[in-house]
Amino acid sequence: MTERMYRAQILLTPEQHRRLRELVEREKRSISEVTRELLEDALRWREQDQQSRLERVHAAGETAERILCERGGEPYRADVSTTLLEAREERHHELGSH
Fold first, then answer.
1. Are 30 and 24 spatial neighbours (Cβ–Cβ below 8 Å)?
2. Would residue 6 count as lying in a domain?
3. C-beta separation of 12 from 20 below 8 A
4. What is the pTM of this model?
């Protein structure tokens, strides 16, 4: 028994329609078949991309937790203005010494 299909109507830009027609003609397949394949590829890519983002967030959380443990539970508090000023001064001295 074949899988049940659902009808969906979509609107395409003229450029999308032209490119789809060219693909369909080149591959000698139906618009429906090619569209389903393209949609499946896009959905799979989106799902993988979302999973990848979640994995990176999880890894960042683990890194933050590890650093916090290494610091004995004391969070790192940086004064960004002072850090930038010190970096600029170091760079100024490096450039002046050459």
1. yes
2. no
3. yes
4. 0.54
